[in-house]
Amino acid sequence: xxxxxxxxxxxxxxxxxxxxxxxxxxxxxxxxxxxxxxxxxxxxxxxxxxxxxxxxxxxxxxxxxxxxxxxxxxxxxxxxxxxxxxxxxxxxxxxxxxxxxxxxxxxxxxxxxxxxxxxxxxxxxxxxxxxxxxxxxxxxxxxxxxxxxxxxxxxxxxxxxxxxxxxxxxxxxxxxxxxxxxxxxxxxxxxxxxxxxxxxxxxxxxxxxxxxxxxxxxxxxxxxxxxxxxxxxxxxxxxxxxxxxxxxxxxxxxxxxxxxxxxxxxxxxxxxxxxxxxxxxxxxxxxxxxxxxxxxxxxxxx
Length: 302
Description:
The protein is of the alpha/beta class. Helix content is 50%, strand content 13%. The protein has helices at 7-16, 23-35, 49-60, 75-79, 84-97, 102-109, 119-124, 144-156, 187-191, 203-213, 219-232, 243-255, 263-269, 277-282, 286-299; strands at residues 39-42, 64-68, 80-82, 115-117, 133-137, 158-161, 165-168, 174-179, 194-197. The chain is elongated.
């Protein structure tokens, strides 16, 4: 297992996985690992919240278990389900054989053999490689009842299955929760976690991230891409591009053998960085050229 006994070591480990983070984020990740506390990350979509869980999993050599949240997600869907089709087959087989012991059959039907483990239960199971990384992604998409359940589950790192009893994690998983802040998450849950707001990176930091993720891109093109995206974020857009879009765009430009940005290239590839038609329309014509001119001017030596 890589050393994570200092903040620098944590930053280096994440960097080895292509995840470039600043000192503040490296500190809160270090504290989360050292204290065994869940880490709650908030920020705009595409700024790298989910990727940090993937980088931690790869860097620590731990299994990544992802619970993708959505509206209507309930405790049973997040913890476990019974394999009803298989149970029905077992019941009919027992009936056909005749003389089935009803109590023994019930015990068999509600055993591990027919249990379908969902992410939260899976994360509580022992693992020879150590506690897994549990990513609870986009928590803000769920509702308050699920938050209340999660509060209990993360307090004791255990879940209860009525037919089987309470299952407690032998070693608490490394928990990362993310939110795009489409709604506020309850304070009681936040209090159980260490908190960090993941903001859009500075020019230098974003250039470093892009270089790590798309090392084949020429320095000149990478600088132009980052400068343009940074200018784009100052515009009144429905959805500002995140770091993920910066990386995607650079890879699209590489696939097209683009050497330097031009208004024509930008017009042809806007779908890689903007995801709403209204935003794309704002960048048609002279607007793209204006932003490109400003971006290139910012790169010129003072």
